[in-house]
Batch of 3 targets.
Target 1
Amino acid sequence: MFTIVRDLARQNMEFLCGLLLFAVIVGLIVVSYFSPYSATDIYLLPPDMPPDGEYWLGTTSRGQDVFWQLTTALRNTLFFGIGVAFISRIISLVVGLVAGYAGGAVDRVLMAINDSVMVIPQFPLLILFYFVLKDSMTWTALILIMASLGWSYDARLIRSVAISLKTRSFTTQSVYSGMSMRKILIEEHLPYVLPIVFATTMNNMIWSIGMEITLSVLGFTDIETPTMGMMIYWANAHSALISGIWWWVAAPVAVIVVLFLALFLLSMSMNEYNDPRSRLNRMGS
Amino acid sequence: MTSYLIFVLKRFGQFLLVVFLGVTITFFVTHLTPIDPVEESIGAITQMGQSDPNAIELMRQSLRELYGMEGSIWQQYLNFWLRLATGDLGPSLSAFPTPVSTIILRSLPWTIGLMTVSTLITFVLGNAIGALAGYYRKDMVLKAVSLVFIALLPIPYYILAFVLLIVFGYLWPVLPINGGYEMNANLDLSFALVLDILKHSILPALSLIMVGTGSWLIGMRALVSNIITEDYVVFAELGGVPKRKILRSYIARNAMVPQFTGLAMSLGAIFNGTVITEIVFGYPGIGNLLIEAVHAGDYSLVLGLSALSIVGVAAAVFIIDILSPLIDPRIKVE
């Protein structure tokens, strides 16, 4: 694992940039634990202060420090993304590996469900869930809903690898030596698909965090927990841009762009690493 | 030909399954909640000032009928399907008693128009730049253009649309930033109206194009750079076939096939994109309608829109899927 990271950082500029940007994000999250104010308290500080030595990124119209609120919001947003990615990875691994290995009717049933989930329009569905749940729409509920919508594409990807793994001789050998299907999938096949799982994790986080921001900005989530989308929601609600409190909007937007750039660069370079042909291309040039 | 027919039938089965699952999810999500939608809606309406007891009782009855307060949940489920099949989605609550289907039909052309045009532009632009960038690897201009589109990819849609609004709404106000046409426009068909509608669609379409082009570009570029190393391309280059012709007939044509399949898959995502676009730019399509319905607590309109979007997306994917073997005979018709 460590050698892979070292090789990638050496040969691949995108990976290095992504890693550095991600380090900035992690740094901000670590800092969030030292926040002197609670991110949910309002009217603690003089409102609408522009960035200066005391309030590094200014204060909001609700009397909050933008910098400290930003770090906590970033932490919540990232944890949200990781939560969705983690649960949906488990679903896509189980579906992909089982469908690829079992084949036949099991495969057909699983893929029929898979393809259906793939094309169902997610955004109207998420709004429908909010519409029904309203105040019971907690972050845990949203994580579960997003996870159950976000596994299908990657399950297909894993299935295609699992099908080719099934035809390899080591699988046949495991079958003849009496290993159970569960054991073959976990001990023999799982290590082969893990690199793909890592790359898809980044994509899944990009997707889920993007959804979170959009839903929150529109006010379709639990608006009391500070997240990146929530900061923009409150800034919009106080028409921050029109009244010239630009730092309230600019700070979260800038951090969002850094976060997404980091995830995107990491996912792109890992995808390339997984594809030996493009890896050779790079070494050749 | 018979194998193609079997393929179409299989895909049709898939289409039915998607519709079935989608509508079932929509139904049970709205029915298995602890909240009573009927009393919620009645409460919302009485709060808005409607207090004629007869009208409310009528509404309560029609709502009960709509949300399955009558009979077992399976009976209600069956009734829901029957109504859906006949296109009767019940009356809207916020615009009682206009039928939901009438309201949706009013907004649908806007969404379909915006979606089709921007999808086609995105598809053509992304594939063209991708193919060129994959073939002429050393060209600096192509590299720069690709980089711009790829850099736009990871930015959440809302943020990008927001930037466009600030730039064209406040910094350099040349384009209308809200709505589908001028507020007091004369809605009779005229050249001025068409021009006005086009002008209002530029920013929403531009934002969709900016977001969507990058992924086509990356896909196409990867496909082309893989095909370049194929024997027949190397052979054609050694044989002195003009580069332009190699790119057009040898490479691009073969690389287009998976891209067409991708077009079907992306339609679902594009639908999501359109909803957000319409909200940000106040475009009068079904996305905006959905948000208004949510804010107004219009249960039947939300239910109708969700069902419609599922059926619409599934149908679009189905059509593109059964067309793709006709575009390229190499696609295996299983």
Note: Chain B touches chain A through 46 residues (CB under 8 Å).
Target 2
Amino acid sequence: MEKALSNKKIIALFLLPGLTVFLIFYFVPIVMTAYYSLQDWDGINPMTFIGLDNYTKMFTVDKSFWQAVWNSLAFLLVGVFIQLPVSFALALLVSRKMKGRKWFRNIYFFPVVMSTTMVSLLWVKIYDPNIGMLNTLMDTLGLGAWTGAWLGDTKTALLSVLIVTTWHYVGYNMLILFAGMQGIPEQYYEAAKLDGATGWKAVRHITFPLLSDVLRICIVLNVIYALKTFESVYVMTNGGPLNSTTVIALKMFQEAFLKQNFGYGSALAVFMVLECLIISWVLNKILTQEKIEY
Amino acid sequence: MLRKTKNSSIYILMIIIAVLQLFPLYWLVISAFKDNSEIIGGTVWALPAEWRLSNFTEAWVSAKVNQYFGNSVIVTLVTLMFVLLFASMMAYALTRMKFKYNSLILFILLMGVMVPIHATLIPLFMILKNLGILSSRLSIILPYIAVNLPIGVYMLSAFLRTMPKELEEAACMDGCGVVKSFFKVVLPLLKPPLASVAIFVFLAVWNELLMAATFIQKQELRTLPLGLMNFSGQYSISWGPLAAAMVISTLPILLAYVLFSDQMEKSFTAGAILK
């Protein structure tokens, strides 16, 4: 057995098929992106090495890059400070011992499994000034003065997209937090009850601190998802109107595949990777400092 | 008494949230049975006066949703098969077999969990072009396998590490080789984590848009998300057929959800903890 398990041929047989596909279609491209980002290249003619010029252009010349950074930041802030607290409240609600809680959990979670394309197309129609249900609904409720072309107006477009992503993903965090809450032993709550801690007090002193690891995961996940936002913006507004909803992933896509700036697009991709890695590393550092032991 | 009112107000709150979550979907489903005049002129929440199936036939046949559906099925099944096979083989080698580069390979795979796929898009486009498979089914299947392998390997090795070795050793005593004992003994035991991985990969591939939009240029090879997007551009005024197409494309997910909702919850939480 031991001998067979260190037989090089068998090891290769088990590892190579998957590893080859992974290396060629995932790992090598990551390395190549870094290389492309130092080139001036349209994808057809030979590339010219230009050092860090793409990055200089990104940080100093290109105004829409900063617009994209700010918009990504908006997704990040909404994810962490609105979506996560709402998810936490939902998780508390569905972990109460009451009839039908599984039903509610399933209903709140279902949007998560639908594709972003589907959800986005659905909301494009909901926001549509002509056939959409939002304006009609608001008219019915006597809020006619507030109706508008939600996705077509620079003032409301970003907010409208943010509402959709929140609607789509609250159930995801809810589920992870719910799973964490199930892992907290019942005795803690019983002991707290004897000390007079029920309701909100129990949540504050037991659920919250004992969930800190899961909360950390949720924060990191939300941040990474926010920084990777692409589909919802691509489908709903394609970055418009006037770049008011553009994000970095979309900008990378447009630069490379519409404007044929493969070098500059690669620099944007590298920026995205570093942004994700650095922010999640920093978050992990900050959030693990205050570890609570019981 | 106080407890009772508190409980019922919590129920009301939960029902309001449930309505907020479900109402858009309800509107989608009823729109799929309505015609344009009913959608534009009628009440938002009213059921269709007559449950028309014409939107569905129009979407399925004229708007080629049948083709997109077929493409999605093929791409998803092929990807799923290879991810499950390769990931379980790799996970087995990485947890049970002894060799030097074990931790290096795990580290490289970890990059696949951390780095956003957006960063691979431009070079992948060139690689696929040079291989001459751009705009074929392979041009998305191969990247889909590569992208989903790491999470599969991680989920399966986490399970394998907790699994006792006795059964494999017994099989070995009986004269099974490693390969045979892997397929006869290990794979059947891996069923529960394989189901989790399968659900994860199914949803990821069935819903994927970015790579499909970049690598698939032939109309007849479009997958559902890509087809739907294009469809909405062409049918910008008639919402009914588009709604029908969207209902059709969500049916497999709904079915999977009804059948495996517990498994789905497990795979989502496991996937999240890994990231």
Note: Chain B has one domain: 32-274.
Target 3
Amino acid sequence: MSGHHISTDKTLLGVAAALLVLTILTVGIYYIHIPTPWDIVTAMGIAVVKAGLVALFFMNLYWDERFNSMIFISGLAFLGLLIALTLMDTLFRVETIPGF
Amino acid sequence: MADHSSSTTHSQFFQHHFVDADQQFEAAKMGMWIFLATEILMFGGLFAAYIVFRLWYPDLFTQASAQLDTFWGAVNTVVLIGSSLTVAMAIKSAQLNQKKNIAINLGITLALAAVFMVIKYFEWTHKFHLGIYPGEFYAFEGIAHEKANVFYSLYYLMTGLHGLHVLIGMGLMSWLLWRSLKGHFDSEYYTPIEMTGLYWHLVDIIWIFLFPLFYLIE
């Protein structure tokens, strides 16, 4: 529908600035040593926000056909399935770590 | 969409089996998104391996991560964000018919990609110098963990596959730069820049996750 959306400099520079600030934030938080598991939760949370900004405004999903977002999200959903099924095995073994 | 098709079918790159240039553009973009979904799943297998090994050996990941330089990892993150911005700028330049700016922005993107690879090169060679190799070739004594090579095998596989994508991206950017200098791209036709841009942004997104997963572990 609106595959030819033209981004303004303001939007593009704003997104880049936000990504820069979030990068500084995630490195800064690393140095203040939050106790586990909140360190990894925070780091991944920031990474998801950054990836979301890139996908929505640099890859134009915000203005694009919803079908392209659907393809993207199905890729992520199948990745979630792969990880979930793998963990259902590896987390609940009697002998947790194989002796290779 | 279709009402301005007569004005958008003049490009020499318009293929006759499409209804109009918009349909050609949308078809290319959907195909690109399907390809990107397969890319997510290819990298995803390695991310799944990372999760399993990190849950098995949490101490190893804390210790081994200390050998990675957070500063250069952060610099490379900023470099890739900058290159994503310039790719988006190149697309905008094409949409606004600013032909010279397309080449300038693609040139900056290519230069930033090269900076990323140079930093990566120094990181890897420094580790090789210490004896940190993947798998059975691992010969570094500095980490008190018997599975230290597992962390670095994942590191080399994931940053290596990512680096390969950066190199492919550099090849594509060079091709686009050459074509933009020949005046192939304008507001009516810039499909290859848009598609390469989508690919490049996904490579950026993957690094956004690799950076905290390898460099920011305490």
Note: Chain A has three helices and no strands.
